[in-house]
Structure formats: C-alpha cells, structure tokens
Amino acid sequence: MAEVINMPRLSDTMEEGTVAKWLFKVGEKVSEGDILAEIETDKATMEFESFNEGTLLHVGVQEGETAPVDVLLAIIGDPEEDISGLINADNSVTTELNVKAEPTSSSETKTTESNKSAQVTIPNGVEIITMPRLSDTMEEGTVATWNKKEGDSVKEGDILAEIETDKATMEFESFYSGVLLAIGVKEGETALVDSVLAIIGPKGTDVAGLIENYSSKDKNSSNQVEKKIEAPTVEEVKTEVPKTPEVLNTTTSNQRIFISPLAKKLAEEKGINLLQLKGSGEQGRIIKRDIENYQPTLSTSAHYTPVGEEIFEEVKNSQMRKVIAKRLGESKFMAPHYYLTIELNMDSAISARAAINSEPNVKISFNDMVVKASAMALRKHPKVNSHWTDTATLIAKHIHIGVAVAVDDGLLVPVLKFADQMTYSQIGTNVKDLAGKARNKKLTPTEMEGSTFTVSNLGMFGIKEFTSIINQPNSAILSVGAIVQKPIVKDGQIVVGNTMTVTLACDHRTVDGATGASFLQTFRKYVENPVTMFV
C-alpha cells in the first residue's frame, strides 16, 4: 500500500522547507532508514530519513522548490501501483509550488521584528522551543523523560527529552546551544503541539514569565505574544524564607489536618482515620510517633468498626492509552461483532513441536504454529482477510498478521508482513524481535501498520478462553487460550487429552457466520495436523 510522505517539520520554528537535493529518483527502490533527501530549513540543511520501504513512485517537491510543512513531499509504494488518487487529492496545494517562495525583504523583516518586540521582551540569545509535531497525526505530546535539568548546559544535537506521541516514544534533539533556562512541560505532562516546551539561552538570563506569556499559535504573526512581560525594576528585592519542616495540609470532612508526609504515609498503610489522631508536633502537627503510639478504641457495645480513608490514586492517561481507548471504543461500537468458538485437540501439535525443537538451534512456540495456521487458512478464506469501507469491501491479497503484545502502558500490535510465506522459525524470530522492541518502546510506526488479521494469545497467563475486540480496519481477530489437560473421547474411549480453545471475533459487515465457521474448520485442520502445513 502506498505511503504518503509530507514535508516534515524538522525544527520547532520550521514553517516551510526547501528540497536541496533528492538522493533517490522516481522508480528507485527505497529501504527503511535510507536518506531520501536533503531539506533546507530555517536553521540548517538536514538529511531526511525514510520511515517506509518500497519504490519511490512520485516526487511532489522538486529540487530547489519550497513547500509548507505537511504538503505532499513524496509517495512510496509498490511498483506499478496506482497513486493518481493520492496525487490529485493534494493537487490543490502542489500546483502552488512551481515557483519558489519570494524571500522576505529586509524591511519586512525589520517590521516584523519591531512588531514582535513591541509585544514582548525576549532577551537576546534566548530561543523558545515548542512541542514538535513528530508524526503526521500528532496533535499533542507527553514528555516521558527529560534528559536535561534546568541549569544544565545544552549543545546543538543533544537529546533534550523523550516525547511520547500517538504512535511511539521518540527522542527530541536540540537545535540550539546554551543553558536550559526553563522547562514548560514537566515529565508526565501532556501539551498541544506548538506549546512552549522549554527555553534555552545564555546562562543567568532572566526569563521569568516568558512561558506564561508566550504564544506560538502563529510563529509568523506579529501578534503571536498576547501579553507583555515587564522587566523587573531595581526596587524589587529577593528575600529568602527560612526553611521549615515539611507539613502536609490535608482536609478531611471539612476539618483541616496538619501532618508530616511520613506520618501520612504510615497512616494510610495502617488504615488509621486521621480524625482520631491528636498531633504532638509543633502547632498540633501529626508526626511519626503519633502514628506508632496510636491505639484504636472499641465502642462500649464491644463492636469494632474498621476506619480508614477512601483514597484514589490518579494516574494520568498516556498518549498510548488514549489512542487505545479511542480506537477500541470506535471498533466495538462501530463494527457489529459476533464470536465463534471451537476447542482443538492439541496432542499432535505437542508431538510435532517436540520433534521440531529437538533439532539444534531450533525453538518454536505454539503461538508460532497458531500464526502460521492462521496465515494459511486466510489464504483459503480471503473474505476474512478484508476490511470494510463505506463504498466497498477491500479484500487483501497479501497476508499481514498483527500479534498483540502487552506492554506497561497497554497493548501494541506489531505486524508480521507476508506471514504466509514465513517458516515456523522465521515467525518465531520476528515475533520475538518485535515483542522486544514493543516492550522497550523502540517500535517504529511502520512496524505497527498494515495488519489484515490479528492474533491475541493469553494462554501463557493461564487464560482458558476469552474474546477480543477487532483491531480495525481488520475484519477478524483470533483469541487463543491455554492448553489444558482434560478427559476427551478418543476411539470411543475416555482418555486424557490436551485441548486448546480459540475464539474468532468477526465483523458481520464483511464476514458472514458461514465464512467464519469455514475459516475455523481449515484452521483446525492445520493445527490438529501440523504436517499439513508443510504441504
């Protein structure tokens, strides 16, 4: 499938870019990680790396031409793929790029600068860094980690922070040298694209109030700053307040309670009602020894009533969690789900796996066998390998299987491309590699795109049977349970057997009940007789 590449924003102030040089020609093969072009920004000429693999089908901005951020830059896809619709969709913008933008005259520049200075006082050498847009769909970002602290020296090229987008956690590089004077978005906080992220400038520069008063809604507008920052007067004197022991001021049932952090923590652990405590510290503050010496009292009726506080821990939703919630909610309420469940006899699969793993340097899992069987069954039942659109049902001729991987923040689904062409070992190696990247937040967006079917396996957690929500735009997802020993009937006799339950969730708009059932019959044949997958 063709991938549209737009003009990237390679610096926080970049509004347009000029293609200095294309390193590939239309028709040439491009690999992920190749340098596609050299792009001249408002700060430097930078190499632009491809995040896609395929053939360069179209160039939207020629060498020497200038285009705004987000305008069609190039299209990468399969050879002979029809991309006329993609080009025409962006034609209204690309036709304006035949003439390079006229440079701003010096008089205009001076006017803009004078207007800007009239609105706000930005000290010399100070650079405002805003939340960058690190992916085409990014609207806001969360600062996962700051690699620098306020007061630290920063060099151009240093990694300032790790920023979590709607697709991945990415490193954000500084384009300036100086001292990190202020941080506008703390670790764990979320901010819209173009919000003030940080301020870099000469050591000791006073930037008080700059974050609160700076607005980057339109960086080319002379009205970009909404309030003027007044310079401090000479009469202002800084005073130091003597430090006092840390005191938490909490309110319970409209009564103010003074308590030390350690005492509050101990009270929560022991379930002690703070209203029943009398502080022995300064000004009646509750301290550690008050918690340690506390003795609960029983009522005169000899009935003990447990006491404690109703407490909620607030955990901010990560960008990943927000996207998961949005997409799964849309899938569940948009696609009419129905479920088909079968129980498989795994005796032959267990024997086959043991035989395969007896070979040196070979180790496959039951999940590898499930993925392989799913891919081969999809080849015989292509309607399951499809997705719905308002105008047509798209039946994929390729088989890309997503494998659900649990991570700390939720669920990621890396994709095995052309899984039906892989051996057991190739499937196992790729799944292990992608799962490791997922848990270490190193998956690239392209490694999570393009699935046509999904497998979700909770068998390793001892779950016998479950259902999953379809991973849109797929038409189906297979939920795989644990292998369990139980009595089964074999040749008219009750014997101990090994079974596994799987459930296929289908989108009724594209997959009828008989189609889903036929898919599971073929899937059963492959899993219960693994040798048939070698034919």
Can you describe what's shown?
Helix 9 packs across helix 10 (424-439) and helix 9 (366-380) crosses helix 11 (513-528). It is flat, with a radius of gyration of 31 Å. By secondary structure, it is an alpha+beta fold. Helix content is 22%, strand content 28%. It folds into four domains: 3-97, RNA polymerase II/Efflux pump adaptor protein, barrel-sandwich hybrid domain (OB fold (Dihydrolipoamide Acetyltransferase, E2P), Beta Barrel); 121-213, Beta Barrel (OB fold (Dihydrolipoamide Acetyltransferase, E2P)); 250-292, E3-binding domain (Dihydrolipoamide Transferase); 319-534, Chloramphenicol Acetyltransferase (2-Layer Sandwich), CATH 3.30.559. The protein contains eleven helices and 28 strands. A hairpin with a 2-residue loop joins strand 23 (405-407) and strand 24 (410-412). The strands form eight sheets. The protein has a six-stranded mixed β-sheet with strand order 19-28-27-26-22-25.
Count of helical stretches: 11
Percent range for β-strand residues: 25-35%
| Largest sheet composition | 6 strands, mixed
Distance between the terminal alpha carbons, to the nearest Å? 30 Å
The portion of residues assigned to helices is: 10-25%
Annotated CATH architecture of the largest domain: 2-Layer Sandwich
Output the CATH topology of the largest domain. Chloramphenicol Acetyltransferase
| Uncertain stretches | 92-118, 216-247
List how many beta strands DSSP finds: 28
Name the features.
single chain; 535 residues; alpha+beta; OB fold (Dihydrolipoamide Acetyltransferase, E2P); Dihydrolipoamide Transferase; 4 domains; 4-stranded antiparallel sheet; 11 helices
